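Q: Structure tokens for this one, please.
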Amino acid sequence: MLKSSKTVLTMRHATLADLHVVVGLLAGDINGAGRENVRDPLDQGYIAAFGAIVENPHQELIIAECNEAIVGTMQLSFLPGLSF
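A: Here is the predicted structure, written as tokens:
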């Protein structure tokens, strides 16, 4: 959690209920603007992709919230490496 005198930024795991907002964030990016589809209902491909991320122990979809509003998202991927 990041705190300042005015804002609190909280990070948490995404839920299926967050998916429409996450797709909207992706569509709001210059790279996703022409690629993402935020129509309701969401394309089943987004739901399948979310399920694949949630089921994979090496992937995490993270939500950033400020004042209870979703303001960001990221996908964290754990990759094997040689160093231990």
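A few notes: The first strand starts at residue 2 and ends at 3. The helical segments are 19-28, 44-55.
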